[in-house]
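Memo to structure team: turn this sequence into structure tokens by end of day. - J.P.
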Amino acid sequence: MRGEFIGVWSEMWRQVWRKLADHRDAPEDLFCELYRELNKSFVVKLDPATSLAAIVDDKDEARIAFRDTKVTALTGELSAVEFLERAHTVIEDFGSEALTNRYFLLIRDFLDKYSLRYDLRRPFSLHPTLPGVFARLMRDLRQVTAQDAGLAGMMRDFEDCVRDLKGNETPLKVKQCIAAQFNLLEALLRQHPNTHGNTFGAMCNETGDWPHDAVKESAKQIYKFASDYPGIRHGGTQANQLREIDMRDMVSVTIMLAAFTPYFSQALNASSIYSD
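Reply from structure team:
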């Protein structure tokens, strides 16, 4: 899974900030200015005129406060990313190109070391990557399904089927994996506030969340494949089977089905999946 900064925030002091402070051009008040900026990302912000001023007016206190800031003090992943981008401006304002570049390289190496879900672009902006977006989608889907015992069980069944493929990539196991995912998504679709029908196709027609009929029809056609292909959801139609199912289909169909989940559940927030 492509990770997020909040999951490895505690590692940043050793991997980024302490190394930045050791640079020959790092000013004594480095953490005074950084902590002032970090305060903007706190859930409970310090009063600039009192408690914050008492910290940032003392370089040693500022260093300690910055070092000891827990991830729980931040409002979330997006606030962490926004702070890191603002920190670049703070460091740049010190006037050392070498120090600014050092910060860029430290963050770049940190992204690589912990396989985080961002691409770093100059001068300094963090952009979600496609693997990161997909990983976040699956994480949020797991959180959504965990709120309902039935959905949680189906999510667990699907993930177990995927794990069981290791060393046993047979057509039967691939069919079981696809069938388990369809069971999960059909159950998820039934919980959509607009759906009242008894069939997958009817519920797709009712959601009202599709950008174009072609997208809706593509979801229905994949469901038709699973129903018509022998041994996935039903006996199917043997004459319509073009070849034996294999791992190509497991990878492709699983990704396609996951891509439809933001249409099936209003509990999945696409904007947060991309950037938060």
